[in-house]
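Could you join me in thinking about how sequence relates to backbone shape in a protein? We need material for that, and I hope you will provide a protein of your own picking. Label the sequence line and the structure token line clearly, so we can match residues to local backbone shapes. Would you write everything just below, so we can both look at the same thing?
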Amino acid sequence: MQMLAAGADIICVHLGLKRGDFLGAKKYISIDDAQKSVKKIFDVCKKFKPEVLRMIYRRLDF
């Protein structure tokens, strides 16, 4: 809400690292928890500023 109120044109949800990443992440969230977090944030975006661009970032292993 604060970012939308400040006039953000883009909201990018950074989900952090996933388990098993080459960096050996000790803190991570499951894909199910990630989906719930993103939905909650994007629902607010759609309600209060539907034109805002919505993006997701999650580090992948290569």
In short: DSSP finds two helices and two strands in the chain.
